[in-house]
Amino acid sequence: MTGPKPSVDRLGRLLNLVPYLLARPGILVSEAAADQGVSEKQLREDLELLWVCGLPGYGPGDLIDMALDGDRVTISHDAGIDRPLKLTQDEALALVVALRMLAETPGTGTRDVIERALAKIENAAGDLADAPVAVKLPANAEKLDRVRAAVEGGHALQMTYYTAARDETTSRVVDPMRVVMVDGRAYMEAWCRRAEAVRMFRVDRIDAFTELDEPSAPPPAAVPQDVTDGVFRPTADLPLVTLRIGRHSRWITEYYPVEDIRREGTGEEWVVTMRVTDLGWAQRLLLGLGPDVIVVGPPELLDRIRAQAAAALDQYSSPAG
Q1: Which CATH number do you get for residue 39?
Q2: Per-residue pLDDT for 24 more than 70?
Q3: CA gap 108, 94 in Å, rounded
Q4: Number of Cβ atoms within 10 Å of the Cβ of 198
């Protein structure tokens, strides 16, 4: 039985795919898949990923572009990847440092993949990989170790926590249940007495905590969540946001869970619906995405964005004091 290929193999395939397709405009997808040694389905997934790859700026003219006409594909803009890439010394060293850092991250579930990728890059980097660069994450590791020890100690915690969705810091008492790793991040799952529900708290967002004398006592209803598909679990009671997005913002559908995707007109624009935990979070996200994303609803979110945009324009029009 053959398992999925490591991500590093896919990265190498993607880097070579653009120059391969440039040399074969209009090639059949089935033929390209056979040459690359992958299924046609996998190649189409690779092409969808290439569509949102490119140079910093990620605007028109920065991203790889192509024409996928039925069963044939042609690269129309290569974003500078016109030949198989070879890492410079600085790039190789940066990758070595990043992978060493990832390998040092506590609880990383794909350590074997990381070590294989690191071995390949160190081999390609030659003597440069022997540079005296040591990577440690003492702050993150120390905090995670302290949280784990507190959870194992079986006491309730008084903690200060930053909630990114609402951009606020709160103080709360929680009854810890466990520490889990999800998508490379450490979370403490606990019964939150303030919310009267089970919550997942990112360890790196716990600003401070104190162990209380009383024991951790989650109620019988506090059941650990299934985090196989991630921490965020959209439910019908959460706000539903509808967006019209252009090609260069399709990454949203890969990064965030969406409920529906509908292509409009020629298919260049997609109408996407997604649940969000908080409209304030959605407001901050969408204000940073630029004109390639248009908010369709709900009306409250549109009003929030208009008001903040108008306030920003007022600041620009006001004379400097």
Answers
A1: 1.10.10.10
A2: yes
A3: 20
A4: 19
